Amino acid sequence: AGEQSLHLARCLNFRNRLSATPMDKTEIMIQLETAYGIQISDADARRLKSVGDIITYVVTTVDKRDKSYAK
Fold first, then answer.
1. Which of 9, 70, 61, 22 has the alpha carbon at shortest distance from 40?
2. What is the DSSP letter of 18?
3. What is the spatial distance between Cα 10 and Cα 53, in angstroms, rounded to a whole number?
4. Interior CA angle at 30 toward 37 and 43, to 5°?
5. Do residues 48 and 54 touch, judged by C-beta distance below 8 A?
6. Could you give the count of Cα atoms lying within 13 Å of 30 in the half-sphere of its Cβ?
7. b/e sequence 45-56, b meaning 16+ C-beta within 10 Å
8. Which of 11, 33, 49, 71 is the most exposed place for a label (fewest CB within 10 A)?
């Protein structure tokens, strides 16, 4: 049941399922930038439609950043 719940959460769409306004989404992006020390471009933010999209984006961006620091 836990894995199914996680899958459902990752698929949640901001506008349709979470009733998030564009301002809500902007605030979420700002909080993510602050929490993870990343920059999310406006173009990238527009492409992030679901919770899963954001998780993948943050993990990938942080991973790339950390690998570049390790060099």
1. 61
2. S
3. 8
4. 95
5. yes
6. 6
7. beebebbbbbee
8. 71
**Packed helices 2-11 and 51-70: angle between N→C axes, nearest 10 degrees:** 90
Count the helices and strands in the chain (H runs, E runs).
4, 0
CA 67 to chain centre: 20
pLDDT in tens, 3-16: 655 555 666 677 66
pTM reported for the whole predicted model = 0.77
Joined together, the tokens standing for residue 58 give 């943050």
CA angle at 2 for the pair 4 and 40, rounded to the nearest 5°: 75
pLDDT tens digits along 38-56: 999 999 999 998 888 998 9
Q: Give the number of other CB atoms < 10 A from CB of residue 8.
A: 11
